[in-house]
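S1.2 Input.
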Amino acid sequence: MTATGLSVTIAAILWGVATGWHVVTHLLALVRHRKPAGEPPPASAFTIVAPMVGDGDASAAYVSALVDLAKAGAEVLICVEEYDDPAAERVTLHWTYLTGEMPPLLIGRANVSFNPKVNNIAKGLETASRPLIVVMDSGSLLRVPELRAMGAMINERTGLVQGLKPPRGARNWAAEAECTMLNGYSARMIFALDKIGFQAACGGILLFSRAAFDKIGGVEAFSIEIAEDQSLLAAMRIAGLRTTVADVVPAFPRPIRRWSDIWGRQVRWARLRWLMAPVTVFLEPLLSGFVSMIAALLAGPALLPAWLDWTSPWGIAAIVLVHWGIWIGAELLFLFGRGLHRSWKQVPCIVLRETLMLPIAIHALSGRDIKWRDVDVVGGWRAQRARAANSGGAAA
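S1.3 Output.
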């Protein structure tokens, strides 16, 4: 085989694998769980631990959703680090307006982890008095039926149910781009991997039983890995408990976003994947829509029927249109099937996302630090592991 023939073959294989993976994962992500047997637990069986930092976390819609859960019987514990945190003032304002009562605020910062979020939720986890515990990121408008449906998936063998928080309601281009990244990519991959027995941490909503929480060692289990959701996932596996992803997708309004925030978050997550599962950082750009489009342009002229000059402008345009038609069509099918945010603006944003896969990976590989809320979580995680190793060696 000549060098040209080898290049064409490699390009054709790359396009086939990347496009096949793209289509298959979208189809897998549409598969839903069987409805659990038995009646879902009542709202009174749940404790909702809701950490907040800053006034942006205490939106009126989010506090209203927490009030609805509390009125249904759930125990709601709102965790704030400082008395003068704007979140405390705003949640008090909204809660008292809706209920006429003071909110269930827990104020203070523990010192149990390098992770600032874990230090915030620790008091809520220790205070929780119900058999089922939910740690929920701010902004997720979780409703009572969705909460109960998630609770029905917990049993003796399943210790953790994760809930996604796919954004919706985009009103600017940056928010639309975030929807394609979190819905068409992250949510799709998490749903698809769940269906084939693999688990990826998805943050948003973490539901587990008190029995499972005690079995994995309590709040310390949230700091095994860099991210608290990945830590909890790992702790459940170590304890021999299953984990799964719920089909419910609570509303998560994100109308206005900034490009700098979108870029920073994607780089931070890519850097986290580089530390936790390095191969994914190489596979993501390699199997991206942009790289596979280049592969199609290289292989197409040699393999497609000769009824059109595929190297001409019309031929190149035809290859590009067919390629993106397959990629965008599969994604829109998934978005409609799962009831996620979709609009005509998603079409160019999908192309943008696939084009940015390579720059994001390169930028992620350019450093090792991950700053979150001005805290070097990677440095803290490594220091914690070193202390654990030293204490283990000393004990031996």
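S1.4 Remarks. The first strand starts at residue 46 and ends at 51.
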